Structures are given as C-alpha cells and as structure tokens.
Amino acid sequence: MGFRFRVAVGAYRISRRVTRGGGVSEGCLFLSAADHTNHSRISRRWHIGDHSHSHSHHHHHLGGKEADGVFKLGLAADVALAVGKGLAGYLSGSTAVIADAAHSVSDIVLSGVALWSFRAARVPKDKEHPYGHGKFESLGSLGISCMLLATAGGIAWHAVHVLQDLYVSTTDVINHSLVHQHHSHVHNGQHHGIDLDHPVLALSVTIMSILVKEGLYWITKRAGDREGSELMKANAWHHRADAVSSVVALIGIGSAILGVPFLDPLAGVVVSGMILKAGMGCGYHSLMELLDAGVPLPILLPIKQTILRVEGVKGCHQLRGRKAGSSLYLDVHIEVDPFLSVSAAHDIGENVRHEIQEFHEEVAEVFIHIDPSVSDLSNIKSGQQNNSNGFHERDVVALVHSIFSSQFPKMSLEHITWHSLQGKIFLQILVSMAPDTLIREAMEMAKKAEKEVLTGDCSLNQVSVQLRLGQQIPQFGQEKPNLDERRQES
Ligand SMILES: [Zn+2]
Ligand SMILES: [Zn+2]
Ligand SMILES: [Zn+2]
C-alpha cells in the first residue's frame, strides 16, 4: 500500500486512489479505528487535564538545593577563616596573619559572587529574560576564572621575583621572605606569607587554612561534576588555588630554613602552572557557554537515541544544544508520518520532550520542529514542483467546489485536506452520499471526480475522494462557512 490517510475517527473507509498519468489502483478497505486509539492513548498519557500545557520543565541534578548548600558551605568557611585569622592576628599582633585574614575577606566576596550568580541563574524566566537566566552562571564562572588567572600570574610573578633575587644574591633568602610578605598579601597577588615572629600561630593558621580549602575543593568539585556546572568547578579551583598558594608559602619558609632557596620559586612555578591550567580551562568553557557554542557530539548522541526511541518518530536531524550554566537548551527537527493530523504530530513532539526531560535531567528546554517524513514518498510519481501558498490553495478549493456542485451533485463535499510534501500536492476530499447509493456507483463517481479535479489544476499530483460512513469529525474554530450550506447556496 502506497500511503494512507489516517485522520478519520473510527470508521471503515473506502479509499480509492488515482495517480496522475491514469494509473488507477484498487480501492482498499481498512480499519482506521486502530490508528485512532493508538493516538488517543499517546495523548491521554501526557495530556490528561493538561489544557494549557507548559513546554518547559526545569530539572536539576541536585534539585539546586544541594548545590546551593555547597556554595553556602564555601561562603561560611571563608567567613569562619576570615574571622578566625582576624582574631588570631589581632590577639597575637601578627601582621602576616592579619594580611591572611584580609585575603579571606576577599574570598568571602568571591564566594558571595559565586553564590549570587548561581542563584541568579536559577531565577525562573521572566518577561525580560524569556530564555531564563542560566548565563548568569557562565558569567560568574568567567569572573572566577579570570581571578584564577590573576592568581596564577601573581604566583608566577613572585617566583620570577625570587629567582631574580637568587641571581643577585643567594644568601639573603630569609630576609627576602620577611620583607616580601609585607607587600605580598593582596588577593590576586602573591602567595600567603608566614610570620616568622609568631611561627606556631602562623603555621597552625596556614595549615588549618590549607586543610579547609582543600576540603572545600573536593566537596565543590564533586558537586560541580555531578551538576555539570562550570561555576562550581571554577569555584572549586579557587578554593584549591588558596590551598596550594599557602603550600607554596610553607615550602618557601621551609626552603629558607633548610637553605635550599630554589625550592620556593620551583614550587611557585609548578603551582602557578596548575592554577593557570584550571583557570584557562574553566574560563574557556565559560566563554564558550556565553558565546552559545554547540555542545559536543558525545552529549548529543544519547539524546538522539532517546528521541528515536519515541513511538511515531521516523527520524530526527539538526539536533543542536547550547549550555547556560548547568542547563542544556536543545532544538531538534523530528520526522513524523506526513499524513498525521497536526494534533497527533504535536502529541509525538510532546512525547519526545517528555522522554528527553525524563532521561536527561540537565536539559532545561527543548524546541521541537516537526517535519513530514519523506522516506515513504519515493513510490509516488513525481510531478510539477509547486510552492504551496495560501492563494493557490484557495483556487484549488474553489475549483473542487465548482466541479462537485456542477458535475457530482450526489456527492456532498465535507472536507478537503491539503497535503504539501516536497513541493508535491495531494488532495484528500471527504464526501458523504445518500445511504441508498451503491458502493460500486460511488466508486465510479469518485474515479470521475478525481480525474476532473486533476485535469482542472495541473499543479495537483494526486487526488483521493473518500466516502464518510461514520460520524463526522468535529471541526473546531472553522472560519469558513459549512461546506454543506455553501453547496446548497450555489
Ligand atoms: Zn582566594
Ligand atoms: Zn527539518
Ligand atoms: Zn505544544
């Protein structure tokens, strides 16, 4: 069977098809009720009581709450470190510890920015931001990445500085450390110094800070990997940058005490490289998110498989995605049976959306474009290529009306369905007839009518007259006057 019109509601239909060029195929009888129940099952499953269906569902891996907690934990730790260091520095009078406290204050600001941009990204879409606020997360991540780059630069600069000092004089390292620490405690500048006047206090504060910060790195990194959030990864690396720069400070002191001066700049260069790499990675990804770079194929392939699994989907193409923070925005063309009704095709689209959001929680929104699948059309004779347009459709409808009212008064015109596929036009004409008409007669009449319509407009590729036996399909919001009335008028 070449193709079937499947729009009618539960009715046996006699369908007769005439192909341009005179080839008449046998009329066929089939039960379309099966198709109908199939579609209504789909629609009932997802559209029950869902008259104003929403197309966007926001899912997040951690429901946002756990992730929010991770940011708050980082902020709280920075506050605790700042207060603890400030108190310890004030009580002991150690300027190095006070300077370290100042660094922790700048960490509070940065953790605050991270938490703020994370929350801003989760504000529901509004009139000003109809696509949501996900890019706030990318922006915050870019900011933190820039800070990481500055930190890496600062540590590298310090290492070069020490190397220069070593070149000039290899004996003055302890002095250097003592002098240097008094101008090195800016946040994005040099590593944290150790106050040698209060060695126990300074050392315990530094070690405590390293442990807390490295712990925060692991907690934030793990959450960031789960959430797919560049912001969390960047923030994790900020925690680690603080930890490793303190380690560099310790190594600097140790190397001075042990008399191995090159250890300090060496550690500085290694750590600077580490932070530089992380900062560039996070910064690059955030920038790509901001520039709407497409997500890589390994992320799209499983989504494509999910789409193709949905019942009624014959194919899909132009699947593309872009990230905004931890949310993924998709659009895709799906191919469906070209003779489905608009509502049935829409149901398939909704099923696709539902399945994607069920199995790929990072997907915030999917835009689905429905294409008629053209793979089934290869057996239809090609005719003139037409560009379907409304004006032409009106001409054809008028032609059909005049042919039927003048030459086939026994057939009462009920509905004309217009199919336009790859420039070919197929017309499906639904008629009703008096109950005492013989089916053989009706078929003869339909054959003639189809030929008349085909010869009447050379742009048509195929015409099929179909007899309605059961109930009429309700016509919602029809602007045109009832076809029966129009026929009676003429
Ligand atoms: Zn910091
Ligand atoms: Zn397409
Ligand atoms: Zn819809």
TrEMBL record:
The keyword Lyase does not apply. It is a multi-pass membrane protein. It comes from the Eukaryota. Residues 73-291 form the Cation efflux protein transmembrane domain. Coiled coil: none annotated. It is found in: Vacuole membrane. Pfam families: Cation_efflux, ZT_dimer. Keywords: Membrane, Transmembrane, Transmembrane helix, Transport, Vacuole. Residues 303-372 form the Cation efflux protein cytoplasmic domain. One of its GO terms (cellular component) is vacuolar membrane. GO terms for molecular function: monoatomic cation transmembrane transporter activity. Involved in sequestration of excess metal in the cytoplasm into vacuoles to maintain metal homeostasis. PANTHER family: MITOCHONDRIAL METAL TRANSPORTER 1-RELATED (PTHR43840:SF15). Belongs to the cation diffusion facilitator (CDF) transporter (TC 2.A.4) family. SLC30A subfamily. This is Uncharacterized protein. It comes from Spirodela intermedia.
